[in-house]
Amino acid sequence: MDFVAIDFETANEKRNSPCSLGITVIKNNEIVEEKYWLIKPKEMRFAPMNIWIHGIREEDVVNAKEFHELWDELLPYFDNTLVIAHNASFDISVLRKTLDLYNLQYPNFNYCCTMVMSRNFFPYLDNAKLNTVNNHLGYEFKHHHASADASAAANILLKIGEELEVNTIKELTKLVGVKIGKVFERSYTSAGTLGSGVTSERINTPAKSSKINNSCYSSKTDYFKNKVIVFTGPLSTMSRIDAIVLIKKLGGTVGSSVTKNTNILITGVKNIDLLKPHQMSSKLKKASELIQKGQSIEFLTEETLLTILK
Q1: Whether residues 77 and 113 fall in one domain
Q2: 208 found inside a domain
Q3: Of 16, 190, 185, 181, nearest to 107 (Cα)?
Q4: Radius of gyration of the chain from Cα atoms?
Q5: CA-to-CA distance for 203 and 166, rounded, in angstroms?
Q6: Burial (Cβ within 10 Å: 0-12, 13-18, ≥19) of residue 244
Q7: Domain containing 233: what range?
Q8: What pLDDT digit, counting tens, does each position of 158-195 carry?
Q9: Is beta strand 192-193 parallel, antiparallel or unpaired with respect to 228-232?
Q10: Are 236 and 206 in contact (CB under 8 A)?
Q11: What is the mean pLDDT of residues 211-236?
Q12: Quick check: is 198 in a domain?
């Protein structure tokens, strides 16, 4: 996937008071550029609460450029790109309000919100805050530094894409149940959710109910208790998110990638032993490599999973 992750910090409660901007550029699922700017707000008023959040003060930006002086440099990162942000309603509002303040034309771009994605994809987390989600993903960063926050938002989108094994934002948003927003000329359409949870319709697979009847499955099995379970590929009998919730109810921990802590890899693929390396997902390859090095990882097919649960 190709996209640009952004994060604004503001000097005060007004959305047209950006004091810093972080941008992370992703090409083919890899970070290719990270940029950071201090910005001198038009109104040089820094609210105590905002200073407490990001630590930027008036003296830090007194020699910085104002937004309109940076816009020619910033525009290529926005125009005709896919922009993502965590709590995008805030960041896109900061952009629009600041462009309005300086009477600058809106660029044309699509955008998505990783906070909305996180609410749908990680419903078992206490909240969908940037630090909460990335802590779950094992990603460390300096929260409320615009550059670090932009990269952290990018990490969430990349991890969700990896989990779902999709290569386009269209596939990802469809599966996670979110809609793409758009900014154009002097207007915009908002990003948001199409419904709670990962949608049941998967690309090139039959539709299925996204709600499973938990009473059909055993709540007494200890098979997954205190184990780290990772999923790879789509399941045919339930959505990924329902399976994750079920595993957590049974005492298991669900990981986002295969690591030295992984105990079980669950896949909808049958006859794993017959797969050639080029036919394996990245998670299957990683698990196979770790097994060859002596790690104990159990492969479970969906059929075996259902047998254990019933």
Answers
A1: yes
A2: no
A3: 185
A4: 22
A5: 9
A6: buried
A7: 214-309
A8: 999 887 878 899 989 988 889 999 999 888 999 988 75
A9: unpaired
A10: yes
A11: 74
A12: no
